[in-house]
């Protein structure tokens, strides 16, 4: 039996992961024992059950240190030895380098796959390019290119006998119906793809032409850091109403079969044909046409990327769809099945790996051993360090490895690295200049607010008026008119507003001066009339029945006499909010994000009791910090989530780590919901507060306190309510618990579970997926539970979570079983378990004695939302922190 280890830089949800999933399944089906080693981010969504071992979360990125590279190699070697691996199959990108070193060290064969032109260079800088082209590709046992185009690019670096083409493979149906309409229950088309900057241009072009061609609408399955940009472009063109964003999905085959047609590139084209749907090839620069037998042959050369193919207009697209018909669709599906059937492709691949030779030890192995003996400083980045190039040069000059080609390639590498270093230094200089300018602007703003400047204001106004009168050319000029205008009564100024605006535009150019609107927005006018104001940002609209931290903060401050501006997130300027800009709670006024960004400069200065409370480190909100600080607002960053990990899982496309760290440094007060978040930022700040989440009796019901203790539950029922994405919800653990404890009923309330979970749940009589339940109705389920569970996957995301549901569980009187969130183990009635011993501890958890009521009451008294925010306000009153530096 052949034992194959697949190594990849990251494993989440996408075309590359689907390709690897197919490989693992097919190689297993051909009698191989398959193993997977993946870097970060890592998700199990597409991981098949046939994998014998999984090693996930290895630190494997372009900015890895030299020490991290040594650790990568060690981890791969450990798996090779413990699992007796015969063959490594490495997929891009950074993973190719440690895989080569491990194969050389352990003397086993290495296959390197290239999934596109980017696999050969330009991904991680000149050092990476040198290693791939000069060492990895020439020395690999076999190089598998995903298309003829990639094979042509790789040919200069690989011997012909070691280069093969292994296209994307897809599982096609055994019988092709060719029916365009029989299975289509959804009239809209489905676009599938990662939402990155390179792809959204083509997607936008398809949406435009889909509407012109008469398609019913478009759904987009996929996510990425360019999602917000695509939504903005669609909104700007008036197309957003015809598009639904589904996010990252694991049930793509089912979505395809249930759609009118499929659009995308790469393996999406083949998957759409396998679903027997009409397919439109969407390249990076636009729509290439409807997939027929002719386009299939043309597009396969570039792995269905659409490169070097002409785009088609909307009329041509419509004509191609009309001409396709059932017979044409059947023909193209059959042709695709013949050339891209998954079982056939991987069977041929396996045949070609039967007689491979291991790569000979070389410079990379020597470099690895050198780093083991003499480590570089932790700050030395493996792919960006001159020290790495220096060590390789020393090895290349030895009699064992010297060659003119290698020496020349290293010189080019060094020169390119030096040039990039100069560019980096220039950027840092520009950043420093910008910081100096910002500091100067702050000083000027503070000076303009100083007492001396206000006292001398009448003298300066008189001097300007005298100069204007002394100059005949300026007697009726701007200086005099402006001086007079701002001394008129407010009602007169509003009456003259239109004339003033026209005069400024005519004589001084549009944009020379910021002009107040004729009628101030109601929320700005209200702020001008109150003594205490707080601005709270939130990722969603205000809903008084939702127990979320920003909403409870808004209620708390409103009850304390503050006027609250609740700034609700928008993805684009045309994104309409259900509640718009309006009062939403006594003392709380909801303001759409972009209206606040545009108008916050009109807010009046405040000497005290003005707070800007940010709960999202989005650049558009952080950019308002300087202006509001200048108006006397205390800046508070409430870190309520591990945004960086959410970004990695596709949940926060607006996130930028630099912006968040900037906000941490700029804020007067920083508070976090979990110790792990304090630890994350401890390197740049050591005064961060720990303020956990809480609960509200008004939301979950004052008469529902301790209902589990008084309900007399006889049957063992374990429940959960909350979001169910498998990015952090440990479904495997839940299924394992349900299988092993058949006498326990598991009730799972929430939404977001993937299709495979729904399919698996149907096979278990004691596990019920209840669906979404309104917060006010949760008690009808909870009163019958005997315990609760929070089964989170261990990782950075779960470590930083302080789930609101834990407080609600304890309020209801439920004992709680927790995985993934270790800091909860100090809470009353909570049993925390590491993933390794979760099964053992769960049985004893069910049999544990009731919790001491006194401890529960003490805990609940300290964790109401009022208690939590009282702690924040007390700190704000005692410490101004950075605000002290500004004399605020």
UniProtKB/TrEMBL annotation:
<dbReference type="Pfam" id="PF13439">
    <property type="entry name" value="Glyco_transf_4"/>
</dbReference>
<dbReference type="Pfam" id="PF13692">
    <property type="entry name" value="Glyco_trans_1_4"/>
</dbReference>
<feature type="domain" description="Glycosyltransferase subfamily 4-like N-terminal">
    <location>
        <begin position="13"/>
        <end position="171"/>
    </location>
</feature>
<dbReference type="InterPro" id="IPR028098">
    <property type="entry name" value="Glyco_trans_4-like_N"/>
</dbReference>
<protein>
    <submittedName>
        <fullName>Glycosyltransferase</fullName>
    </submittedName>
</protein>
